[in-house]
What does this fold into?
Amino acid sequence: MKRKFYQKKRIMIPLTIGLALIFLGVFGALHSSMYQTTTNARVDECLIKFTPQINAKIIEINTENNSIVKKGEIIIELDGHMYKDEIVKLEKEFINAQKELKSFEDEIDNINAKTKQTKEEIEQAKINLENANDDYIRYKNEFKDGTVTKKDLENAINNLELAQIQYETVQKHLKETNNILKDVAIKKDEQMEKLKETLEELEDTKLKATNATIIAPKSGKITNLKAKIGDMTNNNEVLFEILPDEITVFANFKKLPNANFKSGQKATVKVYCDGLKKLSGEVAEILPEKKNYIPVKIKIENPNKCKIKAGSKVYASVKVE
It folds into this structure.
């Protein structure tokens, strides 16, 4: 009897091991067809460090360490009254500069109209001069023939001289008008440059005034808040940090036949933070493919469960089917 039991045992153990291996193989095949995994993944920058863009006195703080803020909420107010006063001043300067520029443009239009008229006068004066010259030549020849009097010839000479003076006068007038036009055009260009500089200064001052109100760029938890009311800010000093509600992981997956990534697919990430932690998430974006990899951006849910460090390597898995 013992021999038969021993023989059964010799058969059952290998059979059980074989079935277990088959089961594990089938399970592994099904798992690999449903999931894509990689260790080539890292945590994106987590903490958002906020440094002020202007140096000014802190007049209001609407939060405290470890408090939760929403994107767009006002965190800190700086004293920006000097920028508001400067904006009013620059806006007046800008309006006056626009008016002065318009006056130069109107003057140029008037000069161009006069130039057009003067050119027409030159054409007429040229015709008059040509006619006076023709009359002079005709009277000169007829005086030799005795068909006209000396008085007639003298009148022809006087008319020619007057026509010549008139032609030279309008030409001189055109030259003077062109010189005036050049001067006004230079003043216009200078005014345009001044207007541009004033506008740039105005926009820069408006930006500084906007930067006096510090808002949360993302939703999350306030950490490392060092600011106090009455302190002067320094644009080289971090005022506070935000641990955002959403943290992303960049994972590179090998190109495989079942690598069918789509936004919204469920994902898990294993990361070391106070021990090995498993965090849930989903595919946020599929980035342009590389030579051998498909870069995928994974959004982590509830990242505040542990202190995740930026750049940490993680194990990422995505359910592709």
Q: What stands out?
A: Confidence is low (pLDDT under 50) at residues 23-31. Residues 81-145 form the longest helix (65 residues). The first strand starts at residue 35 and ends at 43.
